[in-house]
Amino acid sequence: MASDSKVYHFDEVAQHKYKKDCWIIVSGKVYDVTPFLEEHPGGDEVLLLAADRDATDDFNDVGHSDSAKEMMEKYYVGEVDTSTIPEQPNYKLPAQATAPQADQSSGFVVKLLQFLLPLLILGAAFALQYYSKKK
Questions:
Q1: Domain 7-84 has CATH 3.10.120.10
Q2: What span, in angstroms and rounded, lies between the C-alpha atoms of 42 and 45?
Q3: Segments making up each domain of the chain, as ranges
Q4: Which of 16, 47, 50, 82 is the most exposed place for a label (fewest CB within 10 A)?
Q5: Measured CA distances, 69 to 4, 34, 66, 75, 116 (Å)
Q6: Distance between CA atoms of 96 and 107, rounded to whole angstroms?
Q7: Cα separation, 92 vs 72, whole angstroms
Q8: Would the pLDDT of 103 be above 60?
Q9: Which parts of the sequence belong to the Cytochrome b5 heme-binding domain (predicted)?
Q10: At a CB cut-off of 8 Å and minimum separation 6, what does 25 contact?
Q11: d(Cα 7, Cα 25) in Å, to the nearest integer?
C-alpha cells in the first residue's frame, strides 16, 4: 500500500457495484474485489451487496481470518474520504414493556404443570388399570 494512495469520494466508489466492476470499503480503505468475486467463500453476492456502502461492520461481524485480511492488500486501490460516507441507519428494536410479576407467575405455573401433569397421567393410568381388572 503506497503512502500516496488516492482518496476517493464515496459516490465514486459506490458506482463500482457490478459483477464486472466491484469495489468495497472496509475500515476507510477501498478494495477492487472484482477478481476475487468468484473465489470468495461466501459467494460473490455477499460482496456485491456490500459494494455501494461501507462494509466495515459486515466484514468484522463475519470474523475473517488473518490470512483473509492479508489477502485484501493485493486488492487495495486507495482510501475513501470518510466525511463523504453517508451515515448508516441504526436499527433498534423497540423496547418491550415487561411486567416482572407476570414473568414470575407464568414461570411458576409452568414449573407446577411440569410436576403435576406427569403425576396426573400416572394416576390416570393406575386408575384405568385398577378399574379394568375389577370387571
A1: yes
A2: 8
A3: 7-84, 103-134
A4: 82
A5: 21, 16, 5, 11, 57
A6: 18
A7: 31
A8: no
A9: 5-81
A10: 10, 13, 31, 53, 54, 55, 56, 80, 85
A11: 12
Tell the residue number behind the cell numbers 490470512, with chain if given.
Answer: 67
**How many C-alpha atoms does 10 have within 13 Å on its Cβ side?**
14
- Residue with cell string 462494509: 55
Q: Per this entry, what is the length of the chain?
A: 135
Burial class (CB in 10 A: 0-12, 13-18, 19+), 25: buried
Residue 55, C-alpha cell as written in the block: 462494509
The amino acid at residue 43 is: G
Question: Which H or E run includes 77?
Answer: strand 76-80
Cell of 89: 441507519
Q: How do residues 53-88 score in pLDDT, each as one tens digit?
A: 888 888 888 888 888 888 999 999 999 988 888 877
Cell of 16: 463500482
pLDDT tens figures, 26-47: 999 999 999 998 888 888 888 8
Distance CA 50, CA 132 (A): 70
